[in-house]
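# nightly structure sweep
# worker-07 picked up a monomer target from the shared queue
# config: single-sequence mode, recycle default, output format = structure tokens
# input follows
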Amino acid sequence: EIFLIFRPKTLLYQIADIARGHRGAIDGDLEMSKARKSLDWDKQIALSIDPVKARAYRSSSKPSSDDVCTMCGKFCAIKIVRDYFRT
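# output follows
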């Protein structure tokens, strides 16, 4: 499913840039990680390699709640840990 959102060659270039230590690639990857941690879907889509496809995919498989992803649902590890530390 990741290949529906990310173009394979572009993803490989991103991985190579991170491995080479290119600051721009690392910063972008860090921003995406922060967006994932906060379950900020709009920011994740904006930071994705292909925002149009990412938005279409998210819309077509939207879960019942905005605070979980389409893959994990209520078993989202990020959500479980965040909820645990709130109590």
